[in-house]
Hints:
Blueprint: H1 9-20, H2 34-44, E1 49-52, H3 57-71, E2 78-81, H4 87-94, E3 102-104, H5 108-120, H6 122-146, H7 152-157, E4 176-182, H8 184-187, H9 194-199, H10 216-236, E5 240-253, E6 256-260, E7 268-273, E8 303-314, H11 316-325, H12 329-357, H13 368-372, H14 393-401, H15 403-407, E9 410-411, E10 417-418, E11 422-427, H16 443-453, H17 457-463
Parallel strand pairs: 1-2, 2-3
Antiparallel strand pairs: 4-5, 5-6, 5-8, 6-7, 8-11, 9-10
Helix pairs in contact: 1-5, 1-12, 4-6, 5-6, 10-12, 11-12
Amino acid sequence: TVKGDVHDIGKNIVGVVLACNNYEVIDLGVMVSCEKILAAAREHGVDMVGLSGLITPSLEEMAHVAREMEREGFDLPLLIGGATTSKAHTAVKIAPHYSKDVVHVLDASRAVTVASSLKSARADFGAANRAEQQRLREAHAKKRAEKPLLPLDEARRRRPRLDWESYVPPVPGFLGARAEDVPLAELVPYIDWTPFFVTWELRGTYPKIFENPQWGAKAKELFDDGQKLLAELVSGGELKARAAWGFWPANAVGEDIELYTDETRGHVAAEVHTLRQQMDKGEGEANLALADFVAPRESGKADYLGAFAITAGLGLDAIVARFETDHDDYRSILAKALADRLAEAGAEWLHQRARRAWGYEAGSPLDVLALIREQYRGIRPAPGYPACPDHTAKRTLFELLQAEERAGIRLTESLAMTPAASVSGWFLSHPQAKYFNVGLLERDQVKDYQRRRGLPLREIERWLAPHLGYEAE
């Protein structure tokens, strides 16, 4: 896993699959620098290098590794994998930096086929891969030319027009941040099991997946193993969950959200800088920014913004280390996957508490299916994800919550959260708030964002690299 990133479940599964097919795998772990990767490649005389990453800054780190492999004259195939990677991104953003084979590997099930092809027929496989990547680059360029982005002023003109005059913002039951230990047993009913199977590349919706004629039996076996280990984790007391969350008086100023220290709203405690969609969605379709769903300062409405950070990974390292000492890769990966599910369940559990503390949800708690389908008011967008793609917003969020001191969650240099089984984000309460993808950004908005952030343009472009609709200088 590349520098700054701590996620390794998918990488570990790839390692196990390759090892079971008689490949020797040199696993360097997580947060591995380019220098260490290339030094190990030379030391072990490897046949290929594989990079993994989950968060978007990992994509830039992968491009850096490709550039360094080119500069240092490597002739090894470079394999790219991870949740934020894709064939198109690999072709457009990574492959051009390295003149040898750069291959996107969709998931662990493809790893053996790719590795085998590179070993037995590299010339033919590489030529076909390069030809496909060239087609992807041409298609990308054509799409950009056919559908240019809107100027920022026009995107702002197409912002949604919400009725602030009659809107009455709900008032939270408390202001500021608080922290608490979270009993794991309370989170279990909130688990969405479908992504658990996706982790193991078993496709299907829980519980219907058990009826699948091809892998239903395997899914049931995996589920039973997971249930058994989950019961051990919950009762054992070694794995712990903790959360920090709170509310602040807030108002929107353009695409920014001002958070105030108290109800006088005279002092700005922090600013949340949001980005607006610039794709041309056609007249009548709004170009969204998260700030649109917070009452504008000029409306005179006293609105609020919530923030949270929750982890279910405290103590996980010791549990995983024990399994690895016993050479039990399966239970090691299983424990990490369960901790991830508990963290996501924790975010759902905490959001439900927040809606109730905010005073706009009452009555019987929603059932798990209703929660999974998001049949409730409000959203909890996470920095680094489609609606707010800039990971640096986590710094603001963590400072507000004092998340490291209160919840035991730290940020890496690339702003991944550690423990990896952690979730953080904002709480927005407006009934029309919804998730969306900011998409590509034009240079005019990036420069406007840089001015508001007060950071060097190059740094802003580095953090927003996957979302740039132009070539950065």
